[in-house]
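Protein of interest.
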Amino acid sequence: MKVETTPLENRELRVVVEATPEETENARRNAALKLGKKVRVPGFRPGKAPYPILLKHLDPIALQEETIETFLDKVYPEILEQENIEPFAQGRLESILNINPLTLEIHIPLQPLVEIGDYHAIRIPYEPPVVTDEEVDEALERLRKQNAVIEPVERSIQEGDIVYIDLIGYRIENGEITSQSVLEEHDIPIQVLAEGKTAWEYPFQGFSKELLGKQANDHFGIDFSFPEDTPSLTFKGMNVHFDVTIKQVKGRVLPELNDEFAQSVGEYTSLEELRSSVRSMLEAQAQAEYQEEYDTKVIQELVNCSDIEYPLVLVENERKAYIKELQQRLNQLNIDLDLYKKIKGLSEEQFEEEVNKNVEYRVKSSLALLEIAKKENIRFDPLKVTQETQTVMQDLVERSKDSRIPKQLLDSIAIRISERNMYDQVLNGAIEKLRQIAKGEENNIEDQESNSEVNPPETETSGFEGMNKSEIEAVSMPEESITENKSDSEQ
């Protein structure tokens, strides 16, 4: 066997393997004998026909394919060992260069190559926002609106009202309103959106604003032309005249902002106690949002100062995971991908560009962070991993106890959850370390650790050092996604 290797772009290796005539014939013979077990040869029991006779009864194309597969099954592990190749994923057959002797071109994805720059020099000012009295007042006002009482009112319709209407739609053809009814609904509630507020409206976007200034018992008409790409299949490309009758108007009556209100919304004794709780909640929320933005900036600086190469199969896998996650989030909102693109005003090309940008960021940031974890000896806590995995599995078993999930499937799920927990711990540890560096806190923390009399216990399974290669890969690259951390630039 003769092997030639040539490095390609995107961490891929071109391997040309040429079999000797003897190896070619052995692979062909073994392939024929394997196929012969399923072929009937007159005068012989299945699998018992001599090789020369068997060849006359086999499909040449099937024999060629089986010969190549048989040869690759044997020599692929030998090639990896002989050429000291560490593949990231299974190689693929790129082309058949010759049949006799068998000569094949294989492309093998290699492990990502990550060269981290001087990440200790990263500095970004850490300036968390301060919650103002005005923001607290606005939050309390929102709380009042959430606890408003909806009551009938005798006045003109205002923003925020809920209006009950009868709605009949007639098709318009050649500029004339026909008698063909395409919609008839009675006593349907319509919320009148405030200026600047956007939400999906029925029967068309902007309908509620047509109600402003009207009163109960008013009757009027609205003409609307639906575009071809409207999400509503009923009205697609249709011109419709809507007859609207206002049946009832209900407005929101806000409660007084006092101690009694505070007691009604929670376990508070006074308005001041409620105000203090609201401020604490806003501060925690602002801190979490700011830290997410800060971490994203820090990770981007890490990526910018790093040289990262990876095989395209890694991008393909991450893209599948990204689309799957997006679809799961949209399914919870009863939205499909096509409607999502329309809502965001994205063409197919723009959507692909958005996906590619986010996938590239996720791949690069996760690889860079995992390299930080190795350099900084950031380890996962095996006890915590076990506890978190057990908690999730107990909940899963409890929720699906009537389904009788096979034990083998439960074991497989537990392994994947455990790998995800290990991965998340390591990645989050790297983010925390990077955050400390960017804030300029690293030296202070190291001084505190060096002065401490108690050192953390070390175990063989507590980090990368005590793991074999397959375990490291399991932590580094969970099957469902590279990373689901704070860095999605779509958000």
Summary: Residues 447-491 have pLDDT under 50 and may be disordered. Residues 2-111 form a domain with the Alpha-Beta Plaits fold (CATH 3.30.70.1050). The longest strand covers residues 176-191. The radius of gyration is 33 Å.
